[in-house]
Amino acid sequence: MAGNPMDALFELPKDIESIGLAKFDQLIAQGEILYEEPTCKSFEGEFRVHFLISPSTAKKPILSKAEQAPAQAKKRSPFVDPDPNFVLGSVGPEHTLIFNKYCTTCPMYLLHTNDYRPQRDGPTDADLKAIGSLFSAFDRQKNMIIFNCGADAGASQGHKHFQMFPRPELGVMFPDAMALSLGLEAGATVSTLKSKYEQLITAMNTACPPKERALDYNLVLVNRWMAVIPRTHAGLDGKAQTNSAGMMGWIWVKNEAEMEFWKSLGVAKHLTYLGVAA
């Protein structure tokens, strides 16, 4: 019996991970990529979270919700004609893998659609196939992929893109603490990813029925689990914003002052405000 065509991965260079690390270091040395070694600090409130203090992200441009609307986002997109120095390679016919210029981790990649697609559009079969191909070519035990679906989910650009970077140590993100496994260990097919994703989206829409429009959300994928988190706010009046990683308890901030602001809000209370109360 023929397999599912969706599970036939795109072929990538076997040494793409080592090539990427070498080029990443080169771009840092040339001052093209902004990266400083971050500091991680744990905080015990209602539950433990981990703040990753990363000064190199302070200059990262973040488009407003209005600027991420399709008419504006297409004009402002940095992905329609990416800098060749930042391109690592194609991932199938519809996607390109590039380096992130404003890095919280080392390294940090962006997988974007070649043609403009709105960031609020959920992952397509082609997107999931590209993601599965990356997970196969890179060390899936060490890396994670996130998707911030919409401005309220912490997206900084309106052109569809996914991010891949080294995951934190086990236990930092909430699902790790629960020893959660959704059958996504090595060998999981792209069709399995699609099935799990669709199950989670259905569960989200059942628990949080869309009103005027579908909710923005975060998608997090590691080798053992996948999570979808509904979002209603990116931050509070432009402050204390977070993306997929932050909603998992790994909160990226620019400096200690921003971390202290999170604490003053009450971390659990603020995460509830950013998401949806149970």
Automatic annotation (TrEMBL):
One Pfam family it belongs to: Ap4A_phos_N
Protein name according to UniProt: Uncharacterized protein
PANTHER family, per database record: AP-4-A PHOSPHORYLASE II (PTHR38420), PUTATIVE (AFU_ORTHOLOGUE AFUA_5G14690)-RELATED (PTHR38420:SF1)
GO molecular function per UniProt: ATP binding; ATP:ADP adenylyltransferase activity
Gene3D superfamilies named among the record's database cross-references: 3.30.428.70
Gene Ontology biological-process annotations: nucleotide metabolic process
Domain ATP adenylyltransferase C-terminal: 187-276
All residue ranges annotated as the Ap4A phosphorylase 1/2 N-terminal domain in the record: 49-168
Source organism superkingdom: Eukaryota
